[in-house]
Amino acid sequence: MRVPSTRYTCVATPQSTVRSPRAGASRFRRLAAATATVLATGFVSAALVVNPAPPVGARVQLESTDWDRAEVRNLINQSRVQNRLGTLRPNAILDLKADGWAQYLRSICALKHSRLADGAPPGWFKLGENVGKGGSIGQVHEAYLRSPSHRANILDGSFTQVGTGAVWGNCDGYRTVFTVQEFMK
User: Fold this and answer.
1) Could you tell me the mean pLDDT of each successive run of 10 residues in the chain, 185 residues long?
2) Which end of the chain has fewer CB atoms < 10 Å from its terminal CB, N or C?
């Protein structure tokens, strides 16, 4: 039986970062921004099927296994320690974002980036994202490290938290894992 060779691909997030509104913003501006967001979401949701948020306290199921998410996070942290940087703390909200985006990437059998602020926890100051696919989690991580912009996200000393997702599927006849790394300060 012929086993297809594995392929991997990565797409890099530009190093530009987005800053969230901080405590100095006026209450009026925050209220106006929230109102505009709600209105924009209302217009967009008419064209899209949106899954409602789970009830407060409900346990949300991730498709990524704990083992696979931990492997992605451990490889990130090993790379950081080898470069004399601190490790990143896991963030459950970012895990949800990463897992959901990895599922979406698998569904389209392609790579593209999410909107960084969508699904991010409140209070963030800086966000980054890596998305990739390949034959194994380790293979995708090695590809990230060979890409200057991916490597820059992994080794950015200002990031303090990370969410990870790793979803398996079949694309173009190959067993493929889609990994997503969501970084936050």
Assistant:
1) 44 47 40 32 28 45 92 98 98 97 96 95 96 98 98 98 97 96 98
2) N
pTM: 0.73
CA distance 124 to 120: 8
Alpha-carbon span 106 to 78, nearest angstrom: 26
Residue 43 tokens, joined: 């217009």
Residues 6+ apart with CB under 8 A from 23: none
